Amino acid sequence: MRPPALNPLFAEITALPGVGPRIAPLLAKAAGPKVVDLLWHLPTGLIDRRQTPSVADAPVGEVATLRLRVEGHIPQPRTHRTPYRVRCRDDSGTIDLVYFHPNPDWLAKTLPVGEEWVVSGRVDLYQGQRQMPHPDLIEPPERFEAVAVVEPVYRLSTGLVPKVMSKTVAAALERLPELPEWQDPAWLARQGWPAWHEALHAAHRPQGQAELAPDTPPRRRLAYDELLSNQLALALIRAAYRRRPGRPFAGDGRLRDRLAAALPFALTPSQTMALAEITGDMASDYRMLRLLQGDVGSGKTVVALFAMLAAVECGAQAALLAPTEVLARQHFETILPLAAKAGVPAALLTGRDKGRPRAETVAELAAGMTRIIVGTHALLSEDVGFADLGLAVIDEQHRFGVDQRLALSAKGRAVDMLVMTATPIPRTLQLTAYGDMDVSRITEKPPGRRPVDTRTIPQERLAEIVEGIGRQIDRGAQVFWVCPLVEESESSDLAAAEERAAALQRRFGERVGLIHGRLKSAEKDRVMAGFAAGDIALLVATTVIEVGVNVPAATVMVIEHAERFGLAQLHQLRGRVGRSDRPSTCILLYAPPLTDAAKARLKVLRDTEDGFLIAEEDLRLRGPGEVLGVRQSGLPGFRLADPAAHGDLLNVAGDDCRLILQRDPDLQSPRGEALRTLLYLFERDAAVRYLRSG
Ligand code: ADP
Ligand code: MG
Questions:
Q1: Is 254 exposed, middle or buried (0-12, 13-18, 19+ CB in 10 A)?
Q2: Residue 300 CB less than 6 A away from ligand 1
Q3: Whose CA is nearest to atom 15 of ligand 1?
Q4: Which DSSP helix (H) or strand (E) runs through 72?
Q5: Low-confidence ranges of the chain (pLDDT < 50)
């Protein structure tokens, strides 16, 4: 149960004063739906309102807070484009508050002649007269002290005004409960870090630009809190997993031998190495929890199949869980013929299976007739059971939560778990995503692959590119054409792809196909099958093809507005080509002018195809301020910690966490109790359930 002290923080934001049904969704969009989300919504800038000069001394171009008396209104002439002016003064001179497109009634009511006000905003000069266009704040004189401060600036959502955000955050800060310190006091002292309360208050009330930096003591402390909670949660889950005894799946190798004989190729050295690590884990009597990392096309699926056969040799069943229908189907198509050659019955189960056929698949699995099952989330349904599940393979696991992983393993007894990811992750990120899970890496591509010729070309040469593509298609090439994220919304994404597909169809006719996330899954399959069969020569796609799709015949990848994608994503997309021994090309179209960061990203991509190197570069290049980059490759689930700025803390958190659990594996000491609160605070309470003393 969540410690009651935290309840005020986990209330809906509507519990805060002034947050009604209109404002709440706007705040939720910017920060999140709960009070605690506002705490984590740290300022991105500030406005210094501490200058309180007389009107005559107010520096032009700077923000000032002035005490003014309203002298008169100079309404906007109807026919004229000049703004509405409210002339104000103090003893030193006059200044005009200037409004474009004002509501005159509102102005007359708000600023009656003769009254005194505190006004804050940017001062400028127009034809020798000081003026302040659209003051930020107009408050009664007694609020002077409250206005003349440094005001934090927060990221907003459309329709939300700064004042509402800052007032609501301030209200959230007032609700901070007294919580026991979860960090080691000696460590805090050594770092010079403030207590949690103080850290939050300081982070939300920066007194100067320097205090907005991620390396200030308050921000580092908060980031460390988050990183520690993350490491702790992962370690607890892992410890619980390991505590449960495993089953040794040694196997006699007979099925794996048949598979090896059926494969038209030999495993690469790193595939062989990874497989040895996996089968070593499986043969031991503890439970395997291993991550198999390998670039797109490096041959993870085959390795997974060998592992599954090792389980089947021991009389157990194996399951492969994939994040999408397309991927599940594709894995199945790879696995089915090979499993058949090894004499092992395999089946597919996805959300699309309904009625009698589904019931049959489920029954055969439960009866143990099916030895290998491939599927989507459908595998997690309650009515899907196994005769004896021994190995769960989870593909592209960053799309699955810990709970889903466990839901699958709960369908068997002492299930070994192999998690596959095609996203090469730098070491720091790997720790945050997986804790210190065992890792096998496939570092080389299958032999015979040719490097992808990668070019960056400005969008204005589109017509030329289309002509070039036309010639390639005529020679039998197959082309992926990826349309970018246009805006936040899926629909505008889609519109761009549809428009491009229509234009290309006018040029190339029937040979152009379109695939996107909104298509029904049967329709997606039809399109993918058409492309795989070569009926479709040019496939326009939104980023749905990002994950895993394998059409080895495709040799050209066009990515529009490549500058809008993150490095990792571009690398994933490019990985769709260069999967055969034929030369491949990747054309990165961009709209100039490029930011320096975008230039650097595209250069990395031109220079290397090494996914691990690209991942490291991605982390290095991604400045914290780079919104797009963060959106696309930021750490999912993190609010305060930034791997680029706080990478050093991550390793410390890992060590700290090991020490903590050595001394107090069930978090029962007073500090342990405080650390439980920390887990709840960062909503990593799923982990608490894995404590022996829950
Ligand atoms: P990943 O899942 O890592 O993206 P796949 O397992 O789908 O990669 O493999 C990509 C392609 O490479 C498949 O067509 C597969 O048959 C082939 N392949 C895998 N291993 C080898 C190998 N050692 N030699 C040649 N081809 C291989
Ligand atoms: Mg694969």
A1: exposed
A2: yes
A3: 299
A4: strand 63-74
A5: 547, 623-634, 694
Give the pLDDT confidence score for residue 496 in this predicted structure.
78
CA gap 514, 500 in Å, rounded: 9
Instruction: Give the whole-angstrom CA distance, residue 600 versus residue 608.
Output: 12
Distance, in Å, from the CA atom of 423 to the CA atom of 413, rounded to the nearest integer, reads 29
Q: How many Å from the N-terminal Cα to the C-terminal Cα in the chain?
A: 9
Nearest ligand, CA 296: 1
- Ligand 1, atom 10, lies closest to the CA of 297
Residues forming a β-bridge with 67: 118
Please indicate whether residue 445, judged by its CB atom, sits closer than 6 Å to ligand 1: no
Atom from ligand 1 closest to the CA of residue 300: 3
- What are the C-alpha distances in Å from 113 to residues 38, 55, 72, 85? 39, 18, 6, 12
Please enumerate in sequence order all residues whose Cβ is within 8 A of that of 647, keeping only pairs 6 or more positions apart, or say none. 428, 619
Name the strand (E) or helix (H) holding 118. Answer: strand 116-122
Distance CA 199, CA 206 (A): 11
Q: With contact defined as beta carbons under 8 Å apart, do 150 and 205 qualify?
A: yes
Which residue is closest in CA terms to ligand 1's atom 25?
446
pLDDT for the residue numbered 637: 65
Ligand nearest to the CA of 441: 1
- The pLDDT value given to residue 241: 72
pLDDT of residue 379: 96
Query: What pLDDT does residue 642 have?
Result: 81
Query: What pLDDT is recorded for position 213?
Result: 93
Probe target for ligand 1 pocket from 302, 306, 443, with the most ligand atoms within 8 Å of CB: 302
The alpha carbon of 306 and the centre of ligand 2 are apart by a number of angstroms equal to 14
CA of 231 from ligand 1 middle (Å) equals 33
Q: Which ligand is nearest to the CA of 328?
A: 2
Ramachandran quadrant class, 447 (left: phi over 0; alpha: psi -120 to 50; beta: rest): beta
Residue located nearest, by CA, to atom 24 of ligand 1:
446
In sequence order, what DSSP letters do the residues of 519-576 get, joined into one string?
Answer: S-HHHHHHHHHHHHHTS-SEEEE-GGGGTT---TTEEEEEETTGGGS-HHHHHHHHTT
Closest ligand 1 atom, CA of 301? Answer: 6
Per-residue pLDDT at 693: 52
Q: What is the pLDDT of residue 438?
A: 83
Listed in sequence order, the residues at least 6 apart from 142 whose beta carbon sits closer than 8 Å to its beta carbon are: none
CA dihedral sign of residues 596, 600, 601, 605: positive
Nearest CA residue ID for atom 6, ligand 1: 299
Domains of the chain by start residue, with CATH: 4-46+155-212 (no CATH), 50-148 (2.40.50.140), 254-442 (3.40.50.300), 452-608 (3.40.50.300)
- The backbone torsions φ and ψ at residue 11, rounded to the nearest 5 degrees and listed phi first, read -75, 155
Closest ligand 1 atom number to CA of residue 448: 25
Q: What residue type is 373 in one-letter code?
A: I
The amino acid that residue 663 corresponds to is R
Look at residues 120, 122, 62, 125 and name the one whose alpha carbon lies nearest to residue 93. Answer: 125
Say yes or no: CB of residue 271 within 6 Å of ligand 1: yes
DSSP bridge partners of 538: 479, 512
Look at residues 381, 371, 320, 383 and name the one whose alpha carbon lies nearest to residue 343: 371
572 lines ligand 1 (CB under 6 A): no
